[in-house]
Amino acid sequence: MMLRAVAMLSFAAAACLAAPASATAPGFVDGRCSVTAIPDPRPDAPDTTHLAVVSGGPVFQSGTLTCVIQVGGLGRYSDPDSAAASATGTNGVTVLAPTPVTYVWPLFYSVYVCDEFTDAGGTTYVFDNDDYRWEPAAGNSTAECFDVDEPDGPLVDPDWRWIDQVVCPVFGLLDPVDVPGVLTVDSDGDLTVLDDDLWLCPPYES
To answer: In angstroms, rounded to a whole number, what is the distance separating the alpha carbons of residues 179 and 129?
Structure first.
């Protein structure tokens, strides 16, 4: 337990760039899922129990975004889910606010993060890590989730700032966007959704 408690697991697939699979699939500026997890610190908790906060988006269309944690299996969307959180947007923006979940992570098991979005018309898309794009979920049982144990998976430094080198210039291209109370993007790439700072870029405020 001590070895596992020393390191905080911060794995994120947020705001990765992805080519759209169709006109209504999430696209290249749409945010994805992120998860921050630690071993359960409660004295009576099993060593394998983890506490996590799941968040995702923004996806710039109405629909339902679901962020999934899978433990074990092959890292396919068809594998059983260990924990999940979802949110529905109806005003052209879908955001999953930070949501607490718990899951069991046995030693030596792989952990995966899966992204799923259902648009307003009822079509569901999944992000395939192998093809690195959103694809229709129908008949797509082999789409791959992110393996947090892989070097290019969503296991990153806790402050995630290396991702800003890729994400912030893309968000900055959207400037000026200013819909008070809904969506704001400035030239630095700072992204505010529903009055919450969803992504902050350098220079960081102290």
So the answer is: 32
- What are the distances in angstroms from CA 50 to CA 36, 38, 71? 10, 6, 11
Which helix (H) or strand (E) segment holds residue 71: the answer is strand 63-71
pLDDT per position as a tens digit, 167-205: 677 777 777 778 777 788 888 878 787 777 777 777 655
User: Hunting for tokens 């870029």 — which residue is that?
Assistant: 201
Q: What is the pLDDT of residues 103-158, one digit of tens each?
A: 888 877 888 999 999 999 999 999 888 878 888 988 888 888 888 754 333 433 33
C-beta of residue 27 within 8 angstroms of C-beta of residue 174: no
> DSSP class of residue 19?
B
Collapse the DSSP code of 164 into the 3-class scheme (helix H, G, I; strand E, B; otherwise coil) and give the result.
Answer: helix
24-57 pLDDT, tens digit each: 778 666 778 888 877 777 777 787 888 888 888 8
Instruction: Provide the 3-class DSSP secondary structure of residue 139.
Output: coil
Question: Three-class SS of residue 43?
Answer: coil
Both structure tokens of 66: 């679901």
Are the C-beta atoms of 183 and 195 separated by less than 8 Å?
A: no
Q: Where in the chain is the domain with CATH 2.60.40?
A: 2-158
Q: The CATH number of 2-158 is which of 3.30.750, 2.60.40, 3.30.70, 3.30.1050?
A: 2.60.40
